[in-house]
Predict the structure.
Amino acid sequence: MAFHIIAGDITAVAADAIVNAANTSLLGGGGVDGAIHRAAGPELLAECRTLHGCATGQAKITAGYRLPAKHVIHTPGPIWRGGRSGEDAMLASCYRSCLRLAEENGCRTVAFPSVSTGVYRFPLDRAAEIAVREITVFLKTARVVREVTMVCFDGETKAAYESARKRARETAG
C-alpha cells in the first residue's frame, strides 16, 4: 500500500480514478471541479446530469472520458461554517465514500485533490489531518486500492499534507 503527496494538476494524473471536489449538483463549477469538467469534455457533464446530484459527504462515480483517469469520483465536501456544523465528520465521510466506491469499482490507484479547502474555506491544516487519517486507516484494510495520491494544487497545500502525514506517523509510532 502506498500513499503519496505530490504537487500537480489532478487532471493530468493517470490513475484508475481521480476525485472531483464537486458541488452537490455535480454539474461543474469553479476550481478543481471546473478544471476536471473542462478536461474531461462535455460527455462528463452529460453523465453527471443523469446522477441527479449528490449529498455532501457522499460520492458518485462516472467515466473519465478525455482524462487520463478511467473514472471520476465526485464528492461534495462541506462548506466551512466555523466547525460547529458537523464539517469534520462530513469531510471524513467524503474520503471514506470515495475510497469505498474505488474499491467497489476495481480501482487500484486513486488521486485526490484537497477537498473543501478552496472556495468552501475549510481550514487547510484541519482538512489535511482529516484526509491523512481517513486515507491511512482505509489503506490498512483495503482489498483493491493499492495506491492513493494526494495531488496538491500548490506548495502550501503540499506542505500542509506532508506535515499532517508526519504528525500521524509520530502519533502512531
